[in-house]
Amino acid sequence: MRVLKPVLFAVAVAALSLSVFPVAAQIAPAPCTGLGINCGGAANSLSKYIVKIIELFLTLVGLIAAIMVIYGGVKYMLSAGDSKEAETAKHINFFALIGLIIVGLSAVIVNFIVGAL
Question: Global pTM?
């Protein structure tokens, strides 16, 4: 029972945080007419696919990093005063947060480069 409560809490937090994605799916994209953006053409289709692949990759890596943050938090809670286990959990959280920062900055760089094209 001692292990079950933190795991259930982590699952509940993850489920609640993922519940906002359907709302984000209802946001209408901005029309590209009149904005000076090339909305079609053969040259644009390859870059669209490349951008989608990069965005998918960054999303997956960000999701893995977020899961690792949750795992590190659960591991820290379950360390039960063992300093070695607590230190390991702190390292997991530290490196997972560094990974999230890198993924976020990578997304900004990709969007900046795509916007410049």
Answer: 0.56
